[in-house]
Design a protein that fits this description.
The protein is built from 31 helices and 26 strands. It has a six-stranded antiparallel β-sheet with strand order 6-5-10-9-8-7. The chain is of the alpha+beta class and 949 residues long.
Length: 949
Amino acid sequence: MTLKLDAKAHIAIGLAFLVISIVLAAGFLGLIPDRDAAERDGRIALAEAIAASAAEMVARNQPEWLAPTLRLVVKRNDDVLSAALRTDDGDVVMQAGPHAVNWTLAPNDLSTETQLHVPLLAGKTRWGWLELRFRPITPEGVTAWIFNPWVKMVGFVFLSALLVFYFYLGKVLRHLDPSGAVPDRVRSALDTLTEGLLVLDRRQTVVLANRAFAEFTGQPATELIGMNAKKLSWTDPQGGDFDLSAAPWAHALRDGEVHTNNTVHLRAPDGNLHTFQINCAPILTGGRQPGGVLVSLDDITSIEQNSIELEKAKDAADTANRAKSDFLANMSHEIRTPMNAILGFTEILRRGYSRDGADAARHLATIHSSGTHLLALINDILDLSKVEAGRMEVETIDCQPYSLAHQVIQAIGVRAKEKNLRLDLVVDGRIPETIQSDPARLRQILTNLIGNALKFTEHGGVTVTLALDTRPEPATLRIDVRDTGIGIAPDKVEHVFDPFVQADSSVNRRFGGTGLGLAISRRLARAMGGDVTATSVPGEGSTFSIALSTGSLEGVRLLDNTSLQAAVAVSADIETARWVLPQNARILVVDDGAENRELVATVLGEFGLALDEAENGQIAVDMARAKAYDLILMDMQMPVMDGFAATRTLRQAGLTTPIVALTANAMHGYEQEVIAAGCTAYLTKPVDIDALLATVAHIVGGHREGASPAAATAQNVASQSVPDRSPIPSRLATKTRMHPVISKFVLRMREQMRAIEAAQTAHDFSTLIELAHWLKGAGGTVGFDAFTEPAAELETAAQANDAVLTAQWVDTLRDIAERIAEPGKEHIVTHRETKPCAPLKVTGPVRSRLEANPRLHPVIGKFIQRMHEQGPRIEAAHHAADFTELAGLAHWLKGAAGTVGFDAFTDPAAELEAAAKAADAAACQQWIDQISALTARMTAPNSTIDTNT
């Protein structure tokens, strides 16, 4: 803490020190009596007087006569502690007082103010010494300094002078205060100004300050008088040191000119920085030279702050406008791209430019995917609007996170295959079978994150990992989407969650997109009580993490990866099943769009339903009153009479027929309005055919028939004939100039396949990686696209040092290589070496590993029946030496048996296929015998052994 003294105190202290200096000089010159010196002189005179008497007694040889005199001196003089006569030999002849204790000087030492010894002479010879011991003139130690007369005198004079000068100068300075020259009424007027006023002299010393400026500084105006302006807390705009030589008043004092509208900054005692607009006018003397300067200061801190805020608001508005402009530009591009495809391919179909049915199917697939993309884009915009407006509602129900992730990967996996990327779903430890969340929103988040990861990844792949973190309460499910893509700079990671923002503009040009997906995903996750975060390393990839509360896990099973895969297989939707709807059901389709009515009529007409159409609500009301319908599909926005009015009219007339609303309005709250109007259910446009069929079936009483996807796949495999062994031509074979290139590749490919097989046999994974990478790129380059995906999978398996998977993919590539056809030539089959057949002893029933699933029992039974049919065909092909037919049957058995769970057939069938390709009749017979033995022991579900054995 710094003690602040006013000018009066400084002057008083200076004058007091000046007086002390004069007193000390007078003492040094001997102008002030020295009491201690006088005391010392008295002691010396006493010693000399006693010494004179002692010399006379010694001369008479009667020194003992001096004893009474010494005792009298010690007794009558309090300052004398002891006295003695000592011979020159050092013997004490007589003493008064405790002299032996008090005396410490040696004979030859000099006297001090407390111990005096005077020599005694007998004639011209020294007889001895007179010794007198005195008290100290001043106390010894610290008290000696305190009670020193000079110290006491200096202290007294200093304090007295300081007080006298302080009060005296106070009175004098009041008369000398320049501000006192200002009349009180003028000072009062100056003090009422909100503007600060200062008058500085040529040395920049304050000679006048009004109350406003004093309040700025936090000091009384009187204390500012005499203070140099440099000592005030002036700063630069950032609060740093201010160059006072560049101050406006310094310029005014130098050049004698007025300086206006300058800005200075002063830090107040509370630490806040104030900004002043300052005007400086020089005060000219008689010689027209600046003798001082008048400074006015106007506090514009609030104005400057408002200006800063206004500038920030302007910048924010400009940024928002730029974002809107960028968004509109992006939207224009994003909307036009799918619209161009939709309109272009529609026009091609309308004009009949398609060459064949396959061509038309591809065009329709493009139209469908473009329409789906356009709908997703519109949904993103609507979702963002809802979240920003705080109108996004989420539900909390049971949902299966693994099943949702699996469904998303299944739906989006085609994009990974198109780019030759891995897309893996991994479970770290055990996770709950169900959690409390919003499945629709979670699916949307996963779709956005996985889709983004695939979009920004060109090599490697994407891994989706699910894990349970039980450390916080409640437990948290974490879903990490990790890619090996381009990555994001650390300072841009958080910005990618802002709407319409991507890591940089080049990303938009290179990959496209609007920058809405991540913004929506984070907002949805937070609305669900979770969050989405990201970490990234540029050039290595990114990880986007979803953290969601699981809710209560009481009674919920924690399953590992294997159990979850089985659960997904068992609970899969029966996608291949067909709806069976009652043939006598009659439906009225109401829509002002003829194409919409045609779409619904086409879909439902496939199921034998009777349909009538109406183009507005009034016609629908008239038809519903005239004829009984089992269901009315009602558009809600139509001319003449809309769906709301038509529904209310029918309900008021007592009609109880179910009415399902079909509307393109998907905004929040619209469904409640539709239901309140009297509708039974609500479907959005574009029409989801599956949702439409499910709703219609639920109302009119339909049901599904068919197997689950897994069962349907198995059934298709079990019932298929010998697989396609036709040659695989290059897609570039139609270009004659490419034939030499293709032929060279085929020769090179056969050499590389032999190298691949050798590397696989030797488990030389590094060589396998190089060869698979070459085949993946080279095969596609010359038009043999069949190599691309298997070669990529072989490369991945080799990178993981997985001997089993590499063997499987090498087999697949070998099959493809055997079917590769050179331009204009039949394909050359590369035969596979066979290995001797090990004896096989079948001792028990051969069962399918899928028989635990009752829904697959019919498929397993059909395969067993099919296997007994194929057995004689295998035998016949062998007897006829038709090795091509035999290889095809073995290839079918290798795939079909494993698909329905009879894994025991896989290896024998593969070896039989190799033996048939090598035309090794003996080896074929051995493997056929093993397969026959296995067939004989095949057991249907719920049976001990099959009846055909």
